Amino acid sequence: MTANDNWYIEHFEPTGSAIGFRITGKLDEVQSPFQKIEIYDSTDWGKLMVIDGAMMLTTKDNFFYHEMISHPVLFTHPNPKRVVIIGGGDCGTLREVLKHPGVEKATQCDIDEQVTRMSEKYFPELCERNGDPRAELLFDDGVAYMANCEPGSVDVVIVDSTDPVGPAEGLFNKAFFESCFRALKDDGLLVQQSESPLALLELIKDMRAEMGKAGFRSFKTLPFPQPCYPTGWWSVTLASKRDGFGFGFRQADAAAKPFETLYYTAHLHAGLEVAPPFVARALGE
Amino acid sequence: MTANDNWYIEHFEPTGSAIGFRITGKLDEVQSPFQKIEIYDSTDWGKLMVIDGAMMLTTKDNFFYHEMISHPVLFTHPNPKRVVIIGGGDCGTLREVLKHPGVEKATQCDIDEQVTRMSEKYFPELCERNGDPRAELLFDDGVAYMANCEPGSVDVVIVDSTDPVGPAEGLFNKAFFESCFRALKDDGLLVQQSESPLALLELIKDMRAEMGKAGFRSFKTLPFPQPCYPTGWWSVTLASKRDGFGFGFRQADAAAKPFETLYYTAHLHAGLEVAPPFVARALGE
To answer: Do B39 and B48 form a contact (C-beta atoms < 8 A)?
Structure first.
């Protein structure tokens, strides 16, 4: 480290590990009614968005997360037409979802409009589908939105939230998952970001337990690299209403997908059908 | 971060990113003729080994690397009996290699005996196969060892080295790869740790180019999570003497392997047969 270098380091208490990036300066900062949003520029990672001191995304590496929270669940559902994204204010998940031509409507409901405004300004590539006629952007309470959804009206719910503290705390409990369960059709699927599968397996177990109390019967956790999150390895957890659902996916459709990805492939998805042994053991699979 | 916390942070210039761990203290330190080896204890990651300021391994996460540098190449070779490990002084790779019952002899040649002595003391689980009658531990120059190997005598060469600076610099060039090429049988395979596939793709291209100058004809880079290395995502690169070698592996043998792993599975390996699109594009595949 040279004397002129400037590093943004996030010390993450729950994993006892830290992640950081060499930055060139702070570009912007806003205190919304819900949280503090900061934008930094970096030497190697493009722009960084930090919310309440937690790294949310970088220009360089956000594609891992946005692809993996979108494409596996959409290729697992037989025919997803109606998608709801809770959180996801940076709009990167919405962009991936709308790459699927079969999706007829995708509603993104984030409580904090400022996240989207900052993303439009500093991560415009993530917002390039915001004008799609199938997109609906709401700035409202995701818990209330799901509670008020018409029962059996949604194919896929994507919970693209911050960590389970602060504004997102209400997105990790039985009451919220009950709303998701009710809103989903019988073959509907829920997917939620589920933190580090190396260091935070207890959190994944707790989340699955809460989903189970709400009626979900089958679960699948998919790991993927995410350099800007603690441990560099992250996960999403899928949930189905059906007993013994195997989470097999439309492999031929995925292999012939009519859009580009940087990380996701049908091959990769197939390789995730069996969990790493230490993850399977910890989750009792 | 509370005032009482103590963090070991590694700022890695080439990727502009940093990785760190919450430590409880330094347990040991030795300056060998080649490098400085430090051992720390941590709150969540067990013990850490740091060489010349670079994080080498932690108790908690070293299994990713040791499994992925060993099992994919050994299940890709049709019948590996004679294995040479260059570097690998912590003995974790040797342990994985010797899990394969078909391996008749595995020679580990690390220039620095102190790495092995420190590993025996602080990572004894990695050294549990050192007494296997098939194991040979040498403390010598790996470049010279490969140069003096009997031509066509080796099935698999594993280059388990530090970064391409300092003592390991000579393990990343044409002259060394020519020795490996000569020592390997016609169906022999070389595998080498090849740094971050997210941030250091140029290094992987350069390494493949040097291997190519030495006569290797086909290459395959496999990514895997490695939280304690820069970007948290790492890779190994396999090389074959054969034109158009596809790196298909003995999937049935891998699925029926007579030993435990924490991360590697035949399913995972199959999922890696197609590279992530952005990696494939950068490597011209």
So the answer is: yes
Is A271 within 8 Å of B276 when comparing Cβ atoms? Answer: no
CATH of the domain at A173: 3.40.50.150
Looking at residues B149-164, what average pLDDT do you find? 93
Handedness of CA A91, A93, A98, A102 (dihedral sign): negative
Q: Is A24 on the interface with B (CB under 8 A)?
A: no
Which of B58, B81, B104 delimits the end of a domain? B58
Residues of the domain holding A53: 2-58
Residue count of chain B, please give it: 285
* Domain presence at residue A7: yes
Interface of A with B in 198-257 (CB under 8 A): 198-199, 223, 225-227, 231-233
Mean pLDDT of chain B: 94
Task: Give the separation between CA B89 and CA B82, rounded to whole angstroms.
Answer: 18
Segment 45-64 of chain A within 8 Å of chain B by CB: 45, 60-61, 63
pLDDT beyond 80 at A119: yes
d(CA A94, CA A107): 8
Q: Which of A5, A140, A160, A253 is catalytic?
A: A160
Chain B residue with the nearest C-alpha to that of A267 = B271
Whether residue B20 lies inside any domain: the answer is yes
Condensed to tens digits (0 to 9), the pLDDT of residues A160-217 reads 987 776 767 788 789 999 999 999 999 999 999 999 998 888 889 999 999 999 999 9
Query: pLDDT tens digits for A127-155?
Result: 999 999 999 999 999 999 999 999 999 99
Judged by a CB distance cut-off of 8 A, whether residue B97 touches chain A is: no
Whether residue A93 sits in one domain with residue A20 = no
Query: Are the Cβ atoms of B16 and A42 closer than 8 angstroms?
Result: yes
| Domain end marker among B32, B58, B84 | B58
Give the residue-averaged pLDDT of A211-235.
96
If asked whether residues B156 and B39 sit together in one domain, one would say no
Separation CA B213–CA B175 (nearest Å): 9
Query: Which chain A residue has the Cα nearest residue B274?
Result: A267
A44 is catalytic: no
Query: In this predicted structure, what is the pLDDT of residue A179?
Result: 97
DSSP H or E segment with residue A24: strand A17-31
Please calculate the CA angle A45-A96-B230 and round it to the nearest 5 degrees: 25
Q: What ipTM was assigned to the predicted interfaces of this complex?
A: 0.93
